[in-house]
Design goal:
This protein has 172 residues and is α/β, with parallel strands linked by helices. The protein contains five helices and five strands, in the order αβαβαβαββα. Helix 1 packs across helix 2.
Length: 172
């Protein structure tokens, strides 16, 4: 991330505290900030969090500590942050798993993805504008396929027929 991006993320973090405690916003952060990652060390989300933590620590002069809380498809980490003191010192790197998909995938999500969190800043945006939903087999449920170019296939069978001839264009 360039300097401008770091300043935007830092400004977003400071804005979060301004919403939670206006009098303390000018002194933020007065102590270390924990960034909770809902996946294990070495994951793409973890790497992103560590880059953000490093940039924020340099920009704001305080430690930003990355804490991995993997498990439950991200619900364990998101719930821990939802239940933390809303003072801006516990942040969550969210993903579609914790906020978009969880309510549709799990019967009992222990937090409200809208009410229990305040958006601070967008860290990344993926570049997969073309997404298709396929039902591979009746008992497997639905699967999503993301691509950086349009796919002419309308069914999983059409895709399966194309794969052998165009093997180098696809990976998993």
């Amino acid at each position: 991330m360039g300097g401008v991006a770091w300043r935007r993320v830092a400004a977003g973090v400071v804005s979060l505290l301004a919403l939670a405690a206006p009098a303390a916003a000018q002194d933020y952060p007065a102590r270390p900030v924990t960034i909770v990652v809902p996946f294990g060390p070495g994951s793409a989300t973890d790497t992103t969090a560590r880059l953000i933590a490093q940039g924020l620590a340099e920009a704001l002069g305080r430690p930003f500590v990355v804490e991995n809380k993997s498990g439950g498809g991200g619900l364990i980490a998101a719930n821990a942050v939802a239940r933390a003191e809303p003072d801006g010192y516990t942040l969550l790197i969210t993903t579609n798993s914790t906020h978009s998909a969880a309510p549709g995938l799990f019967k009992n999500v222990p937090y409200d993805p809208i009410k229990d969190f305040t958006a601070v800043a967008r860290a990344l945006q993926n570049s997969f504008p073309y997404i298709r939903v396929f039902r591979w087999r009746q008992d497997w449920g639905y699967h999503f396929l993301a691509s950086n170019h349009p796919l002419p296939n309308r069914t999983a069978e059409e895709l399966a027929r194309r794969l052998p001839a165009r093997r180098r264009e696809f990976s998993s």
